[in-house]
Design a protein that fits this description.
Elements: H1 6-17, H2 47-58, H3 120-129, H4 138-146, H5 149-159, H6 166-177, H7 186-191, H8 200-210, E1 229-230, H9 239-242, H10 244-257, H11 261-266, H12 274-277, E2 286-287, H13 309-317, H14 340-351
Antiparallel strand pairs: 1-2
Length: 376
Amino acid sequence: MKPNNKIAALALAGLAATGAFAQENPRPEGLAALGPPPIPADNPMTPEKIALGEKLFFDPILSGNYGMSCSSCHLPDAGWAVQDRISFGYPGTTHWRNSQTIVNSAYYGKLFWAGASGSLEHQARAAARGGVAGNGEDDMMEARMAFVPEYVQAFNEVFGDDWPSVRHAYMAIAAYQRTLVQTDTPFDNYMNGDDEALDEAQKRGLALFAGKANCITCHNGPLLSNEAYYNTGVPAYAGWDDDPLAQITFRFEIFAKGVTEEKYRTLKDDPGLYFRTKQESDMGKFRVPSLRYTAYTFPYMHNGMLETLEDVVEFYDQGGGTNAFAENKSELIQPLGLSDDEKADLVAFLGSLSGEEILPDPPEIPFMEALPAPQN
């Protein structure tokens, strides 16, 4: 730790005062096992709703071209994300940010990298309708579902609809996503009292996580995210320079989300939270992601610019990076001075935050059928 790093010093002192260092407390305060996900009162869970949501999650019926399902960008065998820097886009486009896993997304209060949605229901709607995601129109998607007898029956049984409602479709998808949780990782088992759940390297890594490396300042609580926004200096996505389709998508997004003409013409990096607040001080800030299930969700950061967990640890050990919004870089990000062995232990601990892969058998998707001709 640098002697002049006052913010980090205060944070570390506060953690030490509460016994947060793992050397003093093998189960640091500020961290906890993950419990059951919160369920909103206006969208209670039922087996029938979850089953409907599962089908809709894997069904491309909720998209503009009948070809992009939720699972197109949240692949179960790719960590329920996309193992590439930038997520797949609607045909004729590319996306412009890294696809986040939906495993444990039920616990977030802020969804998407800049916190644009406050619920899974709203997130599903935004993704289905997004210009470089699903690009769907509500009327068309409802009409398609009305031509699927199985959906007509299911929406009637689950929601009492005479015809499928796209609003209720998003509620069913959200209910299904709330089943995609992982609460039995080695870390959870350790925090619940199983001293053997972590090996010695992982325990040393936990001590570093809560102590010298100071990860716990931002990655805390059961979700291992404080859901705050920071600029850590992640470099710009390389595609903005050499991929014409990526450039077009980026210009479309910054125009649609609103920036000044000068910024539209000159920005070469993702402004992040600025899109929502229009505050210069928020340029380049992104919501802290959970560290859970990260064994399967490479590459990392909002633009996938770090390939491995080893790269992530090295990035923070070096004091982060430099991007177009350097004046907004968080003062919490300072060189850590970790040894090679300490880096290896920290990576080992990060591995304990993932359990077995969640790989369900995909559901059978029903087909549209022509409606019978009216009887005279």
